[in-house]
Each structure stands twice: as structure tokens, then as C-alpha cells.
Amino acid sequence: MNLQFLRHSDAEIAKFVEQEVVRQEDGLEMIASENIASPEVLEALGTPLTDKYSEGYPGRRYYSGNIFIDRIELLAIERAKKLFAYDGHNAAHANVQSHSGSDANLAAYLALMNPGDTFLGMRLTAGGHLTHGHKVSATGRIFRAVQYGVRRSDERIDYDEVRYLAHTHKPKVIICGATAYPRIIDFASFAAIAREVQAVLVADLSHIAGLVVAGVHPHAFPYADVITTTTHKTLRGPRGAMILCKAQYAQAIDKSVMPGLQGGPLDHVIAAKAVAFGQAMQPAFRDYARQIVQNAQALARVFASAGLRLVTGGTDNHLVLVDVTPLGISGKIAEQALEQVGIFVNKNTVPFDTRKPMDPSGIRVGTPALTSRGMKEDALERVAEFIVRVLKHLHDAAVLESVSSEVRALAKRYPARPWFHL
Ligand SMILES: *Cc1c(COP(=O)(O)O)cnc(C)c1O
């Protein structure tokens, strides 16, 4: 992984790749959906498997020459089913071919509904994902999406509202899971509501899959009929996704992914997914997931004692959502100021936000990547103090300067990829 060929023949791209690696190394990555893949995952990604075409599934390919690709995909599938085991039972079925979380969600919907059918999903501004039925997403255009949110009083999912909307609109599918929600999701309550209206329950675990398989967040099986998840967030694998489901949906899900939505799978990515699933089954991964949550709670404690307003008052998972408007600033301003000192977060809407999505009231701050660098609560407390200082002294160049050098020093003590040499 030393870019020897690229440097020689395409210096322009090589230079930017190097600069990006250095940016990641010198900064503190706190975007809640990002992580640091292992050297084994990167090795698998950088293999000639990318050259193979293998449309179809193991044992049923359209092209020849897939004997080893079949073994790799079967391993990925078996590991995925074991990784998502619950009460001692492996998951019944796994499809590891989805290219992204958005593709996986669309594939699940197309397997379970016809165009024009109604489904119930979480509103983007309440913490849901675009693919949970936002009107600019294909999911909101192909299907009739009804959206639930959170309660005004405590900013938590309002299960009474979900039940009311389910009984009123009779959706074919209910999807739960979120992209900016700092609390435990109650899959049992969602399942009870889905049963009452005979809807299929899809749990999108994209953000929290690593926490779920480590037992740090309650499992979505056996409550959910279908699980979709990205593989690159807390799960710490390659960029991609997968779908797990109960046996009765297996055929429909597979047909929906291929030939429904995709052609050839990304075999190098599937190999890397298998590697990541193997790593996530190790005891060390359980410690990692537990530390992610402890680190987020350390962040939340420092933020709260500095007087910042946290959505829901704290966190149960890997992220903290901060409403920065009481400080007289917006989420966009906060994001930009933090970027200047090498701390990367994203601006984010808060529930009932009155500001625009491109300049919302909050920031989302996550701990998966810093935890992968080996940071524990003491380091996260320091990082939280950096963030507070920046947000409270936005226009003080001396403060920004000093935080910036402290960020670099801390980043040096916790290398992101000690094994990666440019
Ligand atoms: C990230 C995310 C997705 C989409 O994943 P992509 O790989 O970016 O398409 C879908 N659902 C949720 C809840 C997510 O957090």
C-alpha cells in the first residue's frame, strides 16, 4: 500500500490520496458514520477480485470462473448469518451484495412493496435517513411515504404517534433505525405495532450495527423481519451494505438485489466484508463497541457540564447531537470552525428545527473512528473540551491556534493507521 505505481504514473491523483491520508492522520474524525477500516479489510479491497464478473449468486452465476468467488461469497454469507445470531440461532438469510445502504433499503422496499404502496419511515429532521421516505429520495417518489418523528417534550421516538400513523395509513412496511438519533431504538414496540397492522418491519441498523452485534444495543432480531445495514459505520468494514431477513423473505430479497437493482457484485468488497465480519466476531470487537458508547457518554458529560444543550439530554450510543443555537451560532458555523482546528463533525438538524437543512441548528458528533484509534474516556474528555473552547471562542484566533496544535498533538499520540506507510 505504498502507491508505488500510482505515484509514478498518475502523480496528480497520488498526491491528493496522500494529502487525504495525512488529513485523516492529523485530524480528529468525529463524523458519526465514519470509521477506520483495518489493514486486512484494506488489503482485501485492493485485490484483483475487482476484475471478476459474477452476476448471480454462489452456484448460480451467469459467467464461468467463479469457483473461488463462490467460496468467498459463501463465507461472507455464513459469517453474516452468524454475526447477526440471536438467542443462539443464526440469522436465516443474508445477502451481502448491496453496494450501499441506500441501495439495500431500496432493494428491501422493492422486495416487499409495489410502486405506490404506503410505508412508514422516520422523518429526516427527526433523525431518519433520506431513504426512509424523504421526498427528494427515490424512496419517497416511488412509494407513498408517511413519516413519524420524535416527541417535542423529550425528543425521543413517539411510539404512540407511530401506532396512530400505522393504524391510520395501513402501511405495507414500517422501517425503523436512524442516522442522527442518540438513544436506544425499541424494536419490540415497533414489532408490536407492525403486527397490529400486518406490516413488515424493516430495521435499518446502518449506524448501530457494530453496537448491535457486540450486544451493546438491543438486537433487532427476532423483532424485525428484515435488517438492512451498511458495513462501513460502527461495523468497521468496507464501504457497502447487506440485507438479512427471515427465511420467508429470502427469495424476494435476493431477486430484488439482483437482477432487480444491480448487475455484477463488487467481489473485492464482498471479500473485505467477510474479513470485517470475522473481526467483528472477535472478543476484542465487543470491547471496542463498549468503548464507543463509553466515549460518547464521556463527550456528553463534558458538553453538558459546559452548558451545551444535548438533544434528548445525552446518549445511549455512538453519537451526541448538540443544539448550538443557545451559543448564538448555527450548526454550519460550528462545523466550519471545528474543521479549521482539525476536528471533523457534521452540521445536523435537531428535532423541530426551524433553520434550513444546509444551515441547521445542530452538530452531530460521533466516537467510532476515535475509538478505533485507541482513545478512551480521558482522551474524549479532552476532545470535548477542545470542541467547547472552539464553540465558545469562535472569533478568537489565539484560541483556535492553540486548540489546533493540541488537536495535532493528541492525534499524533493515537495514530489512525500505524501500519500504513506512504
Ligand atoms: C448511512 C445510512 C444509510 C445509507 O448508506 P449509504 O451507504 O450512504 O447509502 C441508510 N440508512 C441509514 C440509517 C444510514 O445511517
Automatic annotation (TrEMBL):
Residues 7-387 form the Serine hydroxymethyltransferase-like domain. InterPro entries: PyrdxlP-dep_Trfase, PyrdxlP-dep_Trfase_major, PyrdxlP-dep_Trfase_small, Ser_HO-MeTrfase, Ser_HO-MeTrfase-like, Ser_HO-MeTrfase_PLP_BS, SHMT-like_dom. GO terms for cellular component: cytosol. Its main location: cytoplasm. SUPFAM superfamilies: PLP-dependent transferases. Pathway: Amino-acid biosynthesis; glycine biosynthesis; glycine from L-serine: step 1/1; One-carbon metabolism; tetrahydrofolate interconversion. Its cofactor is pyridoxal 5'-phosphate. It is found in: Cytoplasm. PROSITE patterns: SHMT (PS00096). Keywords: Amino-acid biosynthesis, Cytoplasm, Methyltransferase, One-carbon metabolism, Pyridoxal phosphate, Transferase. Its EC number is 2.1.2.1. The record marks 232 as: Plays an important role in substrate specificity. GO terms for molecular function: glycine hydroxymethyltransferase activity; methyltransferase activity; pyridoxal phosphate binding. It is an enzyme of class 2 (transferase). It catalyses: (6R)-5,10-methylene-5,6,7,8-tetrahydrofolate + glycine + H2O = (6S)-5,6,7,8-tetrahydrofolate + L-serine. Homodimer. Belongs to the SHMT family. This is Serine hydroxymethyltransferase. It comes from Candidatus Kerfeldbacteria bacterium RIFCSPHIGHO2_02_FULL_42_14.
